Amino acid sequence: HRLVATDSRYEAMHEPESNILCFRHVGNGTMDAQALDAHNLALRERYNRSGHGWITTTVLDGRRVLRVTLMNWRTTGADCEAMLEGIASA
């Protein structure tokens, strides 16, 4: 959560209660709500095709968001940083 909350390219959508985090990529902040929804859906598709990871989307408060579930106890901060970089460059 901290990595997303401190990265201006992303918006944390909630304070997580478990290993699930919902967030969205906001880019440079110039997209309207509809474009932002489409952008995040397309990012998910491109990131998943890259083979570097697997994320899902959901609709939270009427907005399309990226959804990540961290399950492996070996996941590190560096892994999370790599995921965020991979999503941003997808």
Domain tally: 1
Structural class label: alpha+beta
Percent of residues in β-strands: 15-25%
What gyration radius follows from the Cα positions, in whole Å? Answer: 12 Å
How would you sum up the global shape? Answer: globular
Q: How would you summarize the topology of this molecule?
A:
Blueprint: H1 2-5, E1 10-12, E2 20-25, H2 33-50, E3 56-60, E4 63-69, H3 77-89
Antiparallel strand pairs: 1-2, 2-4, 3-4
Helix pairs in contact: 2-3
Describe this structure in words.
There is one protein chain. The protein is an alpha+beta fold. The protein has one domain (2-89): Alpha-Beta Complex (Aspartate Aminotransferase, domain 1), CATH 3.90.1150.10. Helices cover 39% and strands 23% of the residues. It is built from 3 helices and 4 strands, in the order H-E-E-H-E-E-H. It has a 4-stranded antiparallel β-sheet, covered by helices on one side. A hairpin with a 7-residue loop joins strand 1 and strand 2. Helix 2 (33-50) crosses helix 3. It is globular, with a radius of gyration of 12 Å. The protein starts with a helix and ends with a helix. 17% of the residues are buried.
Task: Offer a few descriptive terms.
90 residues, alpha+beta, Aspartate Aminotransferase, domain 1
What is shown here, in short?
With 90 residues, the chain is an alpha+beta fold. The protein contains 3 helices and 4 strands; from the N terminus they run αββαββα.
